[in-house]
Every structure is written in C-alpha cells, then in structure tokens.
Amino acid sequence: MVYFKDWEEFHEASMKLYQSNPQKTRFTMKYRHCDGVLVLKVTDDKTCLKYAVSYSQDLHEVEKITNSLLRLMASKDIQEPKKPQQSNNQQDNEKEKPKNNQNKQNKRKKHQD
Questions:
Q1: Residue 39 domain boundaries
Q2: Does residue 75 lie in a domain region?
Q3: 86 burial level (CB within 10 Å; 0-12, 13-18, 19+)
Q4: How many C-beta neighbours within 10 Å does residue 49 have?
Q5: How many domains is the chain built from?
Q6: Is pLDDT larger for residue 6 or for residue 113?
Q7: Which of 80, 91, 95, 97 has its CA 20 to 30 A from that of 62?
Q8: Is the pLDDT of residue 30 over 70?
Q9: What are the pLDDT digits (tens) for 8-19?
Q10: Pair type for strands 37-43 and 3-4
Q11: CB within 8 A of 94, min separation 6: which ones?
Q12: What one-character-per-residue DSSP string does 31-74 give?
C-alpha cells in the first residue's frame, strides 16, 4: 500500500478504480491524531489506493473527491442491477390480472345497484 504523492493522480486513479468495479469498491477516511494526518483510502480488495492529507488547506480536495465518489455511487446508471427477463407466460398472466380485477369491480357495482 503505497501512498500517492500527487492529488490529481490519486483522484483519477480512485475514479477509475470505482468505475471498473463499483460493487466492491470502498472509500474510507481515517484521522490519525498522533500524526495529525487524514488518510483517504479507496480499495476493491485487490487494489488499494491511499493519500495522506496533513494540511487543513487540502481539506477542499477531500470534499471534492467525497462528492465525486458519492455522486457516482448514487447514480442509477452504474449500480442499477439487471432485471431478470420474464417468460412469455408470466407476461401474459400479468396482463390478465388487471382485467380480472376490473371484471370483479364491475360485478360488485352491478350487485350494489
């Protein structure tokens, strides 16, 4: 686990790692009080990317990567699971159900009148 020295390289590598495997990628932050360092870590259990922030001026970059990753993680395009395809018989049965409900409602109205 090597720490990145350049912020832009870490940001780009993190985005690529997430986009390559969105289901397994994790993003964590850990503040080490003894060192006064905030450690950012992006991993998919095979690749581990780390970056250490030691200056309060760099917290703007932390907010930037957090927002970028959260936007990707909340996007429907990347994480939307594929729906299983239904057979023709199942689709036909689903089409018939609303008709049966309408017929029942019509019969109830006739009995009430």
A1: 3-79
A2: yes
A3: exposed
A4: 22
A5: 1
A6: 6
A7: 80
A8: yes
A9: 999 999 999 999
A10: unpaired
A11: 86
A12: EETTTTEEEEEEE-SS-EEEEEE-SGGGHHHHHHHHHHHHHHHH
